[in-house]
Amino acid sequence: MALRTIVTEGDECLRKVCRPVTAFNARLHQLLDDMNDTLVEASGAGLAAPQVGVLRRVCLVLDEETGEFIELINPEIIAQSGEQTGLEGCLSVPGKWGIVTRPNVVRVRAQDRNGDWFEAEGEGLTARAFCHEIEHLDGHLYVEHIDHFLSDEELQAYLEEEEGEE
Ligand code: ZN
């Protein structure tokens, strides 16, 4: 198990457009394995390579249905529908939360760790994570979509409301 350091807002890596992956080699596999360990350790729903200082188009997204991480290399969103408005945070913006509107269903096309193309579809949190992580690869952060970070009171009220709905 190897953990990588997650960089935080203000680090220039988070504002760069990442380059496509062209070599599907042991170095890429090591990066993916390390990102997986790092994400588990951080209890996150997704992680993009620039968050660990690697400017390549690589990210991991938690598939809510299976509980597994989907490895996405050179991903693109190819279809999206619906709308959801909800809580969003980022491992690179620790301890802060905002409300972001995203499509409710998102379909992506990406390569796996061996370079084979595949498509995956996610709904709800998984769709949100696809959008969030793929944005990271173009140097964008979710904070660009919010008008303010939630205060502790707002966060508490939001979480209580969510619980009430379940
Ligand atoms: Zn993030």
Task: Report what the structure shows.
Helices cover 26% and strands 33% of the residues. It has a five-stranded antiparallel β-sheet with strand order 1-2-3-6-7. The N and C termini lie far apart (36 Å). The protein is globular. The chain has helices spanning 26-42, 125-136, 152-165, and strands at 46-48, 58-63, 68-81, 84-90, 93-102, 105-111, 117-123. The longest helix has 17 residues, at 26-42. It has one domain (12-165): Peptide Deformylase (Alpha-Beta Complex), CATH 3.90.45.10. The model has no long low-confidence stretch (mean pLDDT 96). It contains three helices and seven strands, in the order αβββββββαα. The chain is of the alpha+beta class and 166 residues long.
Secondary-structure map:
Elements: H1 26-42, E1 46-48, E2 58-63, E3 68-81, E4 84-90, E5 93-102, E6 105-111, E7 117-123, H2 125-136, H3 152-165
Antiparallel strand pairs: 1-2, 2-3, 3-6, 4-5, 6-7
The site of zinc ion (ZN) has 5 residues, from helix 2.
Unreliable spans are: none
Radius of gyration: 16 Å
Strand percentage, roughly? 25-35%
The small molecules bound here are: zinc ion
Task: Calculate the mean pLDDT score and round it.
Answer: 96
CATH H-level superfamily: Peptide deformylase
Overall CATH architecture: Alpha-Beta Complex
Q: How many domains would you count in the coordinates? A: 1
Helix content: 25-40%
Indicate the CATH topology. Peptide Deformylase
Distance, first to last CA: 36 Å
Q: What order do the helices and strands follow?
A: HEEEEEEEHH
Q: Could you describe the largest sheet, including whether it forms a barrel? A: 5 strands, antiparallel
Q: Give the CATH level 1 class.
A: Alpha Beta
What's the tally of helices? 3
The count of strands amounts to: 7
Sequence of strands across the biggest β-sheet: 1-2-3-6-7
Question: Quick one: overall form?
Answer: globular
How would you classify the helix and strand content by structural class? alpha+beta
